[in-house]
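Working notes for the structural subgroup meeting. M.R. asked for a predicted model of this chain before we commit to crystallization trials. I am recording the input and output together here so anyone reviewing the notebook later can reproduce the run.

Input as submitted:
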Amino acid sequence: MRGLFFNAENRLRSGWWILIFLALLAAGMGGFQVLLPALKRHGIRLGVWVPGVLFLLSLLATGVCLALRKEPLASVGWQLDRVWAREFVLGTLLGVGLMVLAAGLLWSLGAVTWELDPARSLRALSLGLLTFTLVAFWEESLFRGFVFQRLLGGLGVWPTQALLALFFALAHWSNPGMHGATKLWASLGIALAAVLLGLAYLRTRSLALPIGIHLGWNWCQGSVLGFGVSGNSQRGWVQPLFHGRAEWISGGAFGPEASVFGSVAVVLGIVLLWKWQGRPAPNTTAEDAQAS
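Returned structure, recorded in token form:
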């Protein structure tokens, strides 16, 4: 019975840590849902801050688990030093670059052109940047943070990548526009994106690079180029005009995740990170070292 809970090093098995994390996160989210109507009655509208609250709840659940494991927050990729900041910026630039590549391929085939939206302002771009930053912090904390890293220790790299890619795709199945052939292509694109983001963590043992990539891709896609972001419509600095190509080519209202060229851009990102050897990981845990 002891082997069910503890491994050979007398450490609680990864699966139990994942359950503890998910229970803490569920309790926090449940409390937030109870509190939300009261906030609305008092005229408090969280709006774009909702993913920020969710991120803080995930960070709190992570902090409790790490305290129980007697490990620092840096051990799960929150080093918050100059290297972290540099990788965050580089990741953001890479995400923007990959989205520009996907958009450029669509334009070269005549699938889309753009017109300037005169109503958009720098304030709107800044608000989009804030929104997508909070989304990136929340989703990467959830999908590449504590759970991802415990799975690495329990399953190894590629089973973890495959499992989290599946969950990342499933988490988007309730998004607008997830039907028919779009659902297939969008699920493929989102799963490939999860592999890219997971590889970004593995190459650095930090959450800075995956958060940056996630932010740069979404912000450029929605706030700048005006594409839908995972089915959620956006107003960008420019607005796309589609020219009758099939949605598996253009991505349609769902966005480039549902386009074959979005997948091409993500695969290129995977190849670039695969060829890059990354940097030494100063805070790799024993479990992660076994997995790598």
